[in-house]
Amino acid sequence: MPIQIIKGDITSIPTDAIVNAANSGLRGGGGVDGAIHAAGGPEILRQCQAIVAERGPCPTGEAVATTAGRLPAKMVIHTVGPIWRGGGNGEPRQLASCYRNSIRLAREHNCVRISFPNISTGVYGYPKKQAAKIAVSTVLEELEHSADLEVYLVCYDRENEQVTSETFEEITSKGR
């Protein structure tokens, strides 16, 4: 199956690319971002700092790639999810862009297996059900162009796993 929804720690899932829900300064932080930086080691932060020094902060919806350091992956794709402000400020489009741009980077680097966290559903406050609908729909659309790609939607907690699984079932049973 090209999409698998699993509950677990994204830093321990062996894939070609691990997606990081980053902040625009790519500095590391809390949640999945802090966990990825901590598990991967200082080389990830050094590369992030070099990217920001060269290009400036990473815009919301965009993605950049670095080494994976000590993580069980080839690379980390850092993407900046939107902060939830009610949904009328482009958040759905920006969140979909996070998934699209991350998959684009994974393809460019010949990655076959990519793992995503629940982007923006933590401190950025994106409603979990709405975020899951965007994640699942966008990944399914992208897989139409990349049948060889395996995507893991890695949920840190049971609530996100349940919401994401239910959303996946709803979308795929309707045939989108």
CATH topology: Leucine Aminopeptidase, subunit E, domain 1
Biggest sheet descriptor:
6 strands, mixed
| Percent of sequence in beta strands | 15-25%
- End-to-end separation: 17 Å
Low-pLDDT ranges: none
Report the structural category: alpha/beta
Along the chain, the helix and strand elements come as EEHHEEHEHEH
Spatial strand arrangement across the major sheet: 1-6-5-2-4-3
In DSSP terms (H or I, runs of 4 or more residues), the helix count works out at 5
User: Number of domains in the coordinates?
Assistant: 1
Q: What's the CATH H-level homologous superfamily?
A: Leucine Aminopeptidase, subunit E, domain 1
Rg, Cα atoms, Å: 15 Å
Rounded average pLDDT = 95
Helix proportion: 40-55%
Under CATH at level 1, the class stands as: Alpha Beta
- β-strand number: 6
Assigned CATH architecture: 3-Layer(aba) Sandwich
Shape descriptor reads globular
